[in-house]
Here is the input.
Amino acid sequence: MVVAIDRPKLEGNVAVGDDRQIGFAEFGAPQGRAVFWLHGTPGARRQIPTEARAYAEEADIRLIGIDRPGIGSSTPYQYDNVLEFADDLRTIADTLGIDKMAVVGLSGGGPYTLACAAAMPERVVAAGVVGGVAPVTGPDGIGGGLMGSLGTRVAPLLQVAGLPIRLTALTFVQLIRPFAGPAADLFREGNRPFESADRSSRGH
Here is the structure.
């Protein structure tokens, strides 16, 4: 049986506060065990590997990707600390009728995953971090390599310039968004002859 996994089974937004909403996309089994997928940086709610979508379908898992604030269809918002994200995930879970859940975070989604596990131990039954980043300062700090060193140096600058950088990036994304669809179509058309040639060579 061929299962369509390229598009979400359900997609929408959940109101999480005054004039704020969070976007989500569901894959897998609608009545299955709930697993929230917290995307990396950059990323968005559909940043779920094809293999994970197929496995969710087979293993009776309701796999739900979440847009962080300011990404996808989520309202821009800056948390005072990463633990505050757990309140939003709690609201999303309540709205979707989910009591117990697992949470998986890819890369930049890792801190949010750990925050949710710490804030909701009665609801988060398992948590996993894929390609996470370890602390580079404080008592648990380790050598962070090139990116860790760079992050430590630019962190004070981001305290001041973070908002202008976010607004500039958001403006840029809004400007190029109308061209994203046509660009993807052109890319697909450009690759089609190779696909046809490959098929015809296999038929002989």
The domain at 1-133 is CATH 3.40.50.1820 (Rossmann fold).
